[in-house]
Sequence to fold (321 residues):
Amino acid sequence: MSGAGPVPHHGGVLHDGGGEESRGPRTTRQWVILAVAAVVLAALCLVAGRWQWNRAESRNAEIDLVNANWSAPVVPVDEILPGPGSVVPDDEVWQRVELTGEYATDATVLLRNRPVGGRGGYHVLVPFEARLADGQEVVIVVDRGFVPLGSDGSAPDTVPAPPSGEVTVVTSLRADEPPSDRGAPPGQVQAISTAQVLAAGPQGAAWAQGRTVGAYGALRAEDPAPATALAPLPKPDTDPGSHLSYAFQWGIFAIGAIGGYVLLWRRERGALRGETVSAGDLLLASGEAADGAGVRARKAPRDRRPTAEDEEDALIEAQLR
Fold:
């Protein structure tokens, strides 16, 4: 054998006489490591896909609830909130209810950091003293609508007043939001939590003690109408988002991780099976592969038979493909 031909080296690396190195067949340990990595990667992709799937299911449930309740017939508020301390049931969120009573205008509070239609501004929150059919009275915070930022950005320039005296309002019921731990200027809040809204008013929350409920209302209509109307609140968003498509994408990534490992294994096993073909076939295959990749290949001249060195080179190159 000529000294210029490739010589097997310990560890599966083949050295050729010109000083170049190429990787030989992978060891069992390397295949096990690759298999574990592929399985772990696929598992992580499946976990991410399942998370996105759950988010899609949750979002679809929210959309179904909005579609069912947003345009449902108006019902008296005491059918859902029968008295002080009541909490709106999950399946009644967005249900339209009618309340009759008076606004506690002096207890008006502004909700910060809730843009509408891309515009910065404030929601106007006014407690409403509603009388129930059985004579009880409950205090429900009503989100009357939106006012834009004022000239200095710290508050609205004006806040239109609600109708005075007895008013009949229609609102969509919403569950109280969790209290916010972020600070806010006097008369403003960061969340529509009944306790925080009442506490932020000039008189505090004592005047409504024992009459509150665990819900608030998003205004739909007022009778009589106010002298100056606020910008109405938009219909809740029913866009399902991209969660479902992301779930499928993560599934494809998981399949790709396993499929990539299988493809790599089959390619290397196929290259090793090339040992059973003739030296001439190996020379032809290696020459075509090198030409297709733009790499210089060792090929025997057409006017002579392959030498022992040519045959050995072709055999090893076929194993590495």
Summary: Residues 178 and 191 are 7 Å apart (CA to CA).
